[in-house]
Design goal:
With 229 residues, this protein is of the alpha+beta class. The chain has two domains: 53 residues, Roll (Structural Genomics Hypothetical 15.5 Kd Protein In mrcA-pckA Intergenic Region, Chain A); 164 residues, Pseudouridine synthase, CATH 3.30.2350. It contains seven helices and 17 strands. The strands form four sheets. Strands 7, 8, 9, 10, 13, 14, 15, 16 and 17 form a nine-stranded mixed sheet that branches. Strands 3-2-5-6 form a four-stranded antiparallel sheet, with no helix packed on it. The two termini are 13 Å apart.
């Protein structure tokens, strides 16, 4: 996660000026934050570009965003002592962390970043960011299973939120969640007498697997994710 701090503090530190001098610069419109003139103190972080009198005052941190089609067997951990970890799978010389998790036996879209600004907007359920999964179960899907999934299932002492569920064929359905409890779909199915034999996340927020092959990844442009920053 990125840490934030006050704009004035950053300018004082990097330019060696006083708070009063920074106030004057703000009032006169000589400070720009990410390309826009700013006239008040605010929180900034390592990814924000601060320019004073048309000169950047520091080097900004490069934000990366990655869409990864996780295969079955990859662990959603950055611990390099664990076999088949994300660091080994992605193999880039940059730090990152996953936005949420997919368990070892699950597949599909995993978003990775080093930018903590988007964590809250993508991960907290009050923002109602949807995630879509394709689920295969071990026996024919009943109407009672579909009704139970749609209305909520008590797992780990908590009833899951209502969600959209669409039957695809006798053993497959698509489910849309806005929460992400531990092994939620597997637990919901198990409570109804079903075992999940395959689980693929196909969409997270605005991002879909599209043509990313299993085990491959691609960078997401900042412009594609800017509304979550």
């Amino acid at each position: 996660m990125s840490s934030s701090y006050k704009l004035k503090a950053a300018i004082v530190k990097h330019l060696g000026v006083s708070n009063k001098q920074v106030d004057s610069l703000l009032i006169s419109g000589q400070i720009k934050l990410n390309g826009n003139a700013i006239n008040e103190n605010c929180f900034v972080d390592a990814f924000d570009e601060i320019v004073v009198n048309e000169m950047p005052i520091r080097e900004t941190k490069k934000a990366i965003y990655i869409a990864y089609n996780k295969p079955r067997g990859i662990e959603c951990t950055l611990n390099e002592n664990i076999e088949n970890n994300l660091k080994a799978a992605i193999n880039i010389n940059e730090d990152f962390f996953p936005l949420g998790r997919l368990d070892k036996d699950s597949e599909g879209l995993l978003l990775l970043t080093n930018d903590g600004r988007i964590y809250e907007k993508l991960m907290f359920k009050q923002h109602e960011v949807s995630k879509i999964y394709l689920v295969t179960v071990d026996k024919p899907i009943s109407d009672s299973l579909l009704h139970s999934l749609r209305t909520g299932v008590v797992i780990m002492g908590k009833k899951t939120l209502p969600c959209e569920v669409n039957k695809i064929n006798g053993s497959e359905f698509k489910i849309t969640l806005i929460e992400g409890l531990n092994r939620q779909i597997r637990r919901m199915c198990y409570k109804n007498g079903y075992q999940v034999t395959r689980l693929i996340r196909t969409k997270f927020a605005d991002y879909e697997l599209n043509n990313i092959k299993i085990g491959e990844w691609k960078y997401i442009l900042k412009s594609e994710i800017s509304k979550y920053i």
